[in-house]
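Section handout 9: paired folding examples.
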Amino acid sequence: MMVNEIETPVTLTRPFSRVDIVLMAPPQRLLQGAFTVEKYHKLGELGVFHEDDRVELVNGQIVAMSPIGDAHAACVLRLNIFLARRTELPVAVSMQNPVLLDPRWEPQPDIAILRRAAGLGGHWHATAQDVLLIIEVADSSLAYDRDVKIPAYAEAGIPEVWLVDLNTDSISAYRNPGADGYRELPRVRRGETLRPMQLPDTEITADEILG
């Protein structure tokens, strides 16, 4: 995946001479870095940033995530509540937690529905193999989610991604990943229902998602 440099880096909340967080403007233009997930976590242990900082590792670069507006927050909360009620262990709904895609990618999707053959007990790090469905909620972050994160999800083999577009009141369901991205892209609007491919007995309406 090709990335380009942007002009204005923004330093971390806690200054650190060798690390910058990059503004997402425009979202698809990222400063190419050389961080692995291991190094990224080490920076957190050193206090360069902590769990309250909204950052994620994208193609080796520590990226500042867009601020969460009221509509975005409400949509993520609805998804979490409705999907948690309609799934049972060992399936779990993870909200805004990291998912390890490969050694240079650890995004934090708004929602990830996970299932682990080994069970959910103990400490574990969700990987692409655990993911049944990822949901990204987008308003100002639409281009970034669509053009940067979703191709990475396809490359990692995530079976399905829903992109909730709050600007158009629609949900795009990216399905059947391949080397060139997702092969299917149905779009759902109000009055219609979605069912995850990996959980066909679980359904949620577009109106429940969009509010």
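Moving on to protein 2 of 2.
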Amino acid sequence: MTDTLLLVIISLLAVNILFVGVYIVLVLKEVRQSVAKINQILGSFAAVSNAIAHPVSQAPGIVSAIVEGVKTARTIQDTLAKRKNKVEVENEPRA
């Protein structure tokens, strides 16, 4: 009787261990899928952050180009104004 009881208990433990092993395999499979999805999300996030960072990194260059353009336009206006004043002074009748 003891041998039969021991055999039943060992059989139940073996079946239990088998179910636990299958469950662990299924859980690890889900973890693997979750990690793959997280990796895809991080890849998408990296692409979006690069798409945002690239124009932002060029913004100072654009601003400095506009500032230089405004400075050049003012210099040209000042030069033309000086020439105009010089021509007006030369063309004034002398008394």
